[in-house]
Amino acid sequence: MALNQEELLRSPAVWQPRSIEEAIGMKEEWGSAAVYTAGSTLLRTQWEAGTAAMPRHLIDLGSIASLSGIREEEGAIAIGPMTTLTDCRSSGLLAEHAPLLVDAVRNIAGWSVRNLATLGGNVVYRVGDAVPALIALNAKLEWHDGSRLLFESAEEWASSSYAVPRLLTSIRIPCEEDDPTSNTKRFFAFHKVGRREAFTPSLVTVAIQGEAEEDGTLTKLRIAAGGGQTTPVRMTRAEELLLGAKPDGAGLQQAFEAVLEQYEPRTDPFATDLYRKRTAANLVVAALWSQSPSNASKG
Ligand SMILES: Cc1cc2nc3c(=O)[nH]c(=O)nc-3n(C[C@H](O)[C@H](O)[C@H](O)COP(=O)(O)OP(=O)(O)OC[C@H]3O[C@@H](n4cnc5c(N)ncnc54)[C@H](O)[C@@H]3O)c2cc1C
């Protein structure tokens, strides 16, 4: 259907830069009148809900080939921010080195959205369900601010409050591999609780990556919790309590209390902050209880 004159005037111009530098140049020139677009699945909901205005210029990052793809690079898995959630889900490299992230993206929206939605868009969203997994995986983000590359951890990004004048150029997950000669084993858990089984916004999202000795002693542990509009945070107090210990009843009770204390979700029309706190604490404790060798068979 043809647009009338008024609609044409309101329609944004779509630009397809060929390089990161060109994209940043456009953003610098037009400022808040321009927005980077990736899969546009989040932007579209914001425009439709009226929570963000349709800008005059859309800078389509899909035209920059170097922003897509998953590769092994200097001891890390480097994921281009334009990589779709579907491609993350089917990546052999991620399945081998970061199954936690594969599990997280599998739980985001449905196929049709995941085919368009990108990991970068989810990260920039800040409360995206992939972010707790990236925090638990100790992922690093690479940004370009127009003059230089900037690096920060996913954890630092989530806890920051600045808007994004920068371009996300890479998401890097350190390669962790099981050492066949070691008696430690890596484990991970991702849990998302929503208002229905699938294709649902999250109320609470919990991601855990750890390493345990044969007897269950935890040698590494990173726990992150988010969900809804709650900024994902690392549960450092629970980690400190459990590291170096076998998660028994008393230890897990303390970890439960620590999550209640440190996780600060928001109340919204769907769930109270207390419900979310208890859910997060239960998810953390259940995941750690079930990975312990003495409890696994009872699970
Ligand atoms: C029906 C539906 C269900 C959904 N369910 C979920 C869900 O379960 N969990 C969840 O987490 N999300 C969900 N979403 C939200 C959204 O789809 C995802 O978060 C998605 O990953 C966003 O990616 P995108 O590529 O579409 O981002 P876009 O909408 O293109 O962009 C999102 C933001 O990121 C910015 N941006 C994108 N790439 C870059 C970059 N490289 N550098 C700087 N800024 C950038 C954009 O300017 C914009 O501000 C859902 C959306 C819909 C429509």
Automatic annotation (TrEMBL):
Which species does the entry assign this protein to? Cohnella thailandensis
Please report the stretch or stretches of sequence annotated as the FAD-binding PCMH-type domain: 7-178
Superkingdom of origin organism: Bacteria
Could you tell me the keywords of this UniProt record?
Flavoprotein, Oxidoreductase
Name a Pfam family for this protein: FAD_binding_5
The molecular function GO annotations come to: FAD binding; oxidoreductase activity
Which SMART domains does the entry mention? Answer: CO_deh_flav_C
Name of the protein in question:
FAD binding domain-containing protein
Q: Which InterPro entries match?
A: CO_DH_flav_C, CO_DH_flav_C_dom_sf, Diverse_Substr_Oxidored, FAD-bd_PCMH, FAD-bd_PCMH-like_sf, FAD-bd_PCMH_sub2, Mopterin_DH_FAD-bd
